[in-house]
Amino acid sequence: MGNKKIAPFVGMVMAMVLQSGSMVVIKAAMNDDFNKYVLIVYSLALSTLLLLPFLFLLPRSERPPLSFSTLCSLFLLSLCGSSGQIFAYVGIDLSSPTLASAMLNLIPALTFVLALLFRMEKVEWGHFSTQAKVLGTVVSTGGAFVVILYKGPPIFKAPISSVSSIPLSFSPHFNWILGGFFCVADSLVASVWYIYQASVIRNYPAVMVTVFFQLLFSTIQCSIFALIAVRDQSAWQLNLDTGLIAIFYQAIAATTLRYLLCTWSVQKAGPFFCSMFKPISIIFTVIMGALFLGDDFYLGSLIGPVIIVVGFYGVMWWGKATEEKCMIIDEERLQSTCQNAPLFHDKHLTI
Fold this sequence. Notes:
Layout: H1 6-31, H2 36-57, H3 68-94, H4 97-103, H5 107-117, H6 128-149, E1 154-156, H7 172-203, H8 207-229, H9 242-269, H10 271-275, H11 281-293, E2 297-298, H12 300-340, H13 343-350
Antiparallel strand pairs: 1-2
């Protein structure tokens, strides 16, 4: 790894630590009976307020006028983000931060599938790179089902075990499966968000403005949902407890700081380099979950992520390396052809 990649490497590791901490803090707040929907609303509202001063500091050249169609696009984009957050919080509450972190590795594979459906990705079934992507997607999806359906025996058993704060009459194993599918839904919505965001940012390239209105619309959308879902008015009261800590952590670290780190790292090293750091988030989540929540680490949570990572990233690296090798061979053949056929060019020079 060159010197130019050291700073982005550190930045992405920090971003993954912040993301893992986010899941653990969310779970801790839920275990203390802090309502997850209220947590979403307060966190988004605080993130919006934190970003507002930076919006006014932007020069006018970086704040092009917003049309009605752009605002509608940002509203729909925010709807994807809002629903994804709700799915993620429910999934974490029903299962564990470890499972939620494992499911995030599905995002690249699901994004590839959606890109195929929306014809944003060219499909050449006879081409090796396409076959590698399809194979990696199938294998990684199988790994996700292993995490959800096979919990397995505990590899590491914490001294105290955390219990979900949702008083459901279902078995813990059913809660685990249901939470897993909510986490898959979060990954699917996140993939839709990535696809749609590419279109929105292409038409309106002001990143800071786009993020601000996404947070603002998401706050409004989640507030409406929470007012309907949360009937207990006392759930909106704030106290000096883990709920308040979770709100500040989500707003400052998990949203604002993590976004800046990821954006800067992508700018310096490229999206492919940064996407490779997703799998390491599960390592930090397992450690933090065991230390701060007393979560047990199960065999299925080890086997599944390994299949996902090897399935998608391993096959993608293999396909990319083979594709580059084929390109080098084609270039060598083209150069050889040009060197062996100079007569036609020389003939024109002598006329």
